[in-house]
Amino acid sequence: VAWSELYTALATRVVEGTKNSPQDVMTMRFNEHIPYLTLDGHGYMAAFWWVSDARWHTYPDDLKAALTGGLAQLAAATRARVKDAQTAALDAFTQGGGTVMTLTPGNTAAFARAAAPVYDWYIETYGPTWPDLIRQAVTACTANVEDTR
Fold it and tell me: What global pTM score does this model have?
C-alpha cells in the first residue's frame, strides 16, 4: 500500500497494521485505527556524512578534530531527540487508549526460530553470502548500538 493511501487502508481494514515508528503512527493519525504497537527494537536511525579520503587528508589536524567532535555531538543530540520524540509519541498513544507491547528476548528468539526456514530456503536458493552478511551486521550492531527500548 502506498504511504499516501495507508491511513485510508487502515480505516477501511484493507490492511490491519503497519511497520512504522511510534512518531509516524501519531503524526499520521494511524492511532485512530491501530489499537496496538509492538516495540521490537529492529529499527535504527542512521545519518552519514561523507568526505573523500583525498579531501580528508588535506584538512589540518585541528579541523579534523573539530569535525569529528562536532559530528559526535550531532549524533548524540540526534539520538536523544529521536528517543524523546518516541517517548512522547508512546505516551500520547497510550493516553489515547492504545496498548504498547515490548518484545522480550524470549519473544525475539521465538520469532528467529520461526523465521529460520526462510533463511534455509534463501540459502538453498541463492547461497549463504547475503544471510551471512546480515547476521554479521546484526551481531556488530547489537554489540555497538545502545538499546533504546
Answer: 0.70
